[in-house]
Amino acid sequence: MAFEGLAERLQSTIKKITGKGKISEQDIKEMSREIRLALLEADVNFRVVKDLINRIKERAVGQEVMESLTPGQQVVKIVRDELAELMGGENAKIAVGDRPPTVIMMVGLQGAGKTTTSGKLANLLRKKHNRKPLLVACDVYRPAAIEQLKTLGDQLNMPVFSLGTDTNPVEIAEKAIEKAKEDHLDYVIIDTAGRLHVDNELMTELTEIKEAVEPEEIFLVVDAMTGQDAVNVAESFNEQLDITGVVLTKLDGDTRGGAALSIKAVTDKPIKFAGMGEKLDQLEPFHPDRMASRILGMGDVLSLIEKAETTVDQKKAKELEEKMRSMSFTFDDFLEQMEQVKQMGPLDELLNMLPGAGKMKGLKNAQIDERQLSHVEAIVKSMTKKERQNPDIINASRKKRIARGSGTTVSQVNRLLKQFNEMKKMMKQMTNMQKGKKGKGFKLPFM
Amino acid sequence: MSFFDKLKKRFNNEENEEQVQEKYKEGMKKSRGAFSGRINDLIARYRKVDEDFFEELEEVLITADVGVTTVMDLVDELKMEVKRQNIKDTEQIKDVISEKLVDIYYGDDDPEIETLNIQENGMTVILVVGVNGVGKTTSIGKLAHQLKQQGKTVMLAAGDTFRAGAIEQLEEWGKRADVEVIKQSAGSDPAAVIYDGIQAAKARNVDVLLCDTAGRLQNKVNLMKELEKIKRVIEREVPGAPHEVLLVLDATTGQNALSQAKTFSEATDVTGIVLTKLDGTAKGGIVLAIRKELDIPVKFVGLGEQINDLQKFDASLFVYGLFADMIEEEA
Lengths: 447, 331
What we know:
The structure holds 2 protein chains of 2 kinds. Chain A is of the alpha/beta class. In chain A, 54% of the residues lie in helices and 9% in strands. Chain A is built from 19 helices and 8 strands. The radius of gyration of chain A is 27 Å and the shape is flat. The relative contact order of chain A is 0.10. Chain B is α/β, with parallel strands linked by helices. Chain B has helices at residues 3-13, 18-27, 29-45, 51-63, 68-85, 90-106, 136-149, 166-177, 190-203, 221-237, 256-268, 286-294, 315-330; strands spanning 124-129, 154-157, 180-182, 208-211, 244-250, 272-276, 298-302, 310-312. An 8-stranded mixed sheet of chain B has the order 3-2-4-1-5-6-7-8, with helices on both faces. In chain B, strand 2 (154-157), helix 8 and strand 3 form a beta-alpha-beta unit. In chain B, helix 1 crosses helix 13 (315-330), helix 6 runs antiparallel to helix 13 (315-330) and helix 9 packs parallel to helix 10. The relative contact order of chain B is 0.18. The chains are: A alpha/beta, B alpha/beta.
């Protein structure tokens, strides 16, 4: 399918113009069609694409090609910078009202994920900002929308305010604020009904709620998979309600998410958060620069580097390297490594961030079964200290015991032992190759 | 006879379909407006058919989310056609454009591809799949109502055991359509719920069993495996089932819809698409690309929030929906 990134798209065009010191007008002309297609394929709105291409042309023509880059790469860099500039800086702030409670209104189309995001936002406020939020069920139209919010409230152990489906949403919102004051809750998150943006009745209702409760924040919740229509949606919600920010949901899918760019371009409101999964703690600050790379299909290298830097303890890594060289790598070290990798987040998420991961056949859609990892962990933890230090002593009866202790089978234990030995061999080879050079870090076979 | 005349004639002939036609026209009013307006505008501005004209035509089609590859192919074909027929005037190309669009959709197939495969004898099992928030449960509710109106006995199986409130939502639709809902508690194994549904449907001699599933993004391999398992359970319990696997797509979705259709097909052999939320400004043009590249037909479109706003898909009507202003203008 036509999902290759811009970098690949440009390859063929690039070939023709290598070896030049400057980017000529002709080069840009040839490339701009490819850039245009790549952006359109990523669902960036065509109006936005047009503006961008013009700006890129202006900026690129006559520019010197940096020594370390090919002209093609230089153009990609210009495109990326231009996109990053348009996306703006990071901004995951949530307003604090002069007087509690601070009111946040969630608006958006049906199925964008307002209710789930409301729950996630409440969770974030409590966890990261130490606040006490109240969830308010103002979607009185969709069947079971209130139940959904209540269930989320139960899961989070968070209060939910509702007056059933027979009360006017404006009244519900007003009463909710009184309730929050009574109970000394400092945030009120209002989940509103999702309907089409062209639905005047709903827009009026939203405007009425807005006037009644004067929210500090109005978040527009948008599905990251939205196509060309994202512009219309964002424009009309912004015009009517003057939104303060955007939450992009379902970004854990494989969409390029060009809608993000369109929304930013037409509303000039910051995209503050991104929904990254179905679990209630998977609401993350939105990184505009990384989004720019993602739209271009360049992989989220930055995210990966950053994640690796924060979680892998450099000193420990050094120690391990020593151990590997001396072949004294044990199951204890193995366990420690696994912990570190796990801290970096779900493995499939890490894989997706690697540029070119989509190109490698086996890796495309490769999802590492986290359960399998926990099997491995269980096996290792069922070994005695002695066995972990010196796996060679593990004989048939020990294997049986380990399998029983970890709830696995002997063949699974065998497989792990074999893999472990191969890994050790591989590490030896790797470190031998690196000898002399200052090797930093290494990869485990299951990474 | 021009293509538009043919289309128009079709509508005039089928008076019993008038209501359906009205629904399409009303529902797609917002989708259509901008689209046909822009094509008209384009044709008015460009007298000559040249490269610039085609470039802008590309853009108009892309705004409808038709999909870049499909648009490129279409434009290439148009260019050939223009050469062949020696068309110089943009007015003449109007016909060719819409003809090609319907052509992409039908190809050599007969229009029967939109009909739901309902068994004459014995039970029909329909599995409904899709990503989060596209309107699976709502579509099931509407479909249940429709089948009930046709005199079928219908049962629903609440296979979305994951999302908060999903079971309650389906129950509410069950009440509205007056059909029975088979459920277990939230968090239980969806395949087990579907199994229960099949047993209950068999025991009560139900005509059609509609199986709801939890929304899932198509790149979550483990969740897609769960879907494969659900399908296996259905295959095992009812020979020849599922008779239909319907993928629900949100019309506002862009190019990712193609990836959705592809991956869900790999897991469950999707037999048809339900295109929802077409009553907004989104045009859902991606279904043309899906049909072209993956050969999956659209069976229903959602044109509103009411229980009877689910309509059988008709490509001519769909294109008519996009071009209606132009057709009527010509008359």
